[in-house]
Amino acid sequence: MTNSMNGAPRELVRDPAPVTEITRRHRPSVHVVGIDGRGCAGLTSEAMHVATRAQVLAGGERHLAFFPQYTGQRVVLRGRLTDVLDEIAALAGENDVCILASGDPLFFGVASLVLKRFGPEHVDVVPTVSSMQLAFARAHVPWNDAALLSLHGRPLAGIVTRLRTVARAGVFTDELNSPSRIAAHLLEYGERDWRAIVAEDIGTADERVRRFDSLDALARTDDIGPLNVLVLERTDPRFAPAPSLPFLDEAEFAKKMPRAGLITKREVRALALAQLRIAQDAVVWDVGAGSGSVSVEASFLAPRGRVFAVEVDAECAGYCRENARAHGADSVTVVEGAAPDALYDLPAPDAVFVGGTKGSMAETLAACASALRDGGRLVVSAITLENVAAAHAAFQDLGLEPEMTLLQVSRGAKLARYLRYEALNPIHLFAATVDEGDGR
């Protein structure tokens, strides 16, 4: 091969990374076998062979009950799973172990923890049809573009934010986060554009599948069995995914607000959120949240994350809650209290926006910088010259050299039959990346 410019041989560029073939030729000591509601009748011959030849059979009591004739050692999966895996590890050295799990063990299942605990070279996974897959089949709903979620042992908050861009979803539930409670939660945040299908005891002789044409009907239903899958589908055929950053006008947050100045202007909001570099699973603090406008739009950028709106004024905290509900931002948690004291019990953030400190700029920025994860972003807005000076000094004291932006925005406004520009208050934005050792 020659270079087209001068005819000189061009050296082939080879990927230095090794290629690893994933093979099942090895003989793993731990097998994770998927099993559905039919029990042994639903197992393939391979899965049945693995389960019956193992010296140790582990699983939930419901799964172990499918093997009444098994004579080897049984291990019940209950309590802290890490403790049970330690017990299995002690047995796996001398024995073949089979762990029974529901459906596809790698789909919100135990196999991910087993692989982490034992290493992939020692684990074999034999899946069966997932109950999620069966539920969509029974509902006659395509699922190639569905959001697939699990609320099993997980918080309900955030599901509305996750669903805002999708037309259909499948949800694993549990006794606390039941389909009825999920429906009530969606309704609380103004989500009515859904029909629901609840598949109970899917794949068993007791299977029951019901369609609810409104979430109101589902929220009132109290006879749903504990083993179920919830399928949600939009009722509006014109549904289109909402933009990640809606660029909402201040009027969208102004209901009952005592002062419009408590609402961060949309142009400032957009630039500040860009400077925060929010990842989809980020933890975000909005300190001095005011109306909660930054918190709401930050939650849209972090659908798998959490947002904490910290506000000292109780009345404004109430507005934050109202605005979060109005915009379907159920991953926003409002924290009433003054910074920095209100920050110390919050999860470590990936990004912090400081919109107000009530005179505690230095202390608040020091607390934020100390709490941020390595590589986290700290963004501060300041209007008055006093706050600009305080923010600049606080960054200097922390050993941080922030990017500084003076944002001056003028909007078109009518003057009789003419159009003029109306200037908004100029805003200073300070933005910095906090690495390990900075301000700590």
Walkthrough of the structure:
This protein is an alpha/beta fold and 440 residues long. The chain contains 13 helices and 19 strands. It has helices at residues 45-53, 61-64, 81-92, 111-118, 131-139, 159-163, 179-188, 215-219, 266-276, 293-301, 314-326, 361-371, 385-397; strands at residues 30-35, 56-59, 73-76, 97-102, 123-126, 147-150, 168-172, 194-200, 208-212, 228-234, 283-287, 306-311, 332-336, 351-354, 376-382, 403-407, 410-415, 418-423, 427-434. The strands form four sheets. A seven-stranded mixed beta sheet has the order 13-12-11-14-15-19-16, sandwiched between helices. The protein has a five-stranded parallel beta sheet with strand order 3-2-4-1-5, sandwiched between helices. It has a five-stranded mixed beta sheet with strand order 6-7-10-8-9. β2 (56-59), α2 (61-64) and β3 (73-76) form a beta-alpha-beta unit. α12 crosses α13 (385-397). It is globular. It starts with 29 loop residues before the first strand and ends in a 6-residue tail after the last strand.
Q: How much of the residues is beta strand, in percent?
A: 15-25%
Number of strands: 19
Mean pLDDT: 92
Percentage of helical residues? 25-40%
Straight-line distance between termini:
55 Å
Please state the CA-atom Rg, rounded to the nearest Å. 27 Å
Strand numbers in spatial order across the main sheet: 13-12-11-14-15-19-16
Name the shape in a single word: globular
Largest sheet geometry: 7 strands, mixed
- Helix count equals 13
Which parts are unreliable, with pLDDT below 50 for 5 consecutive residues or more? 1-5
- Structural class of the helices, strands and pairings? alpha/beta
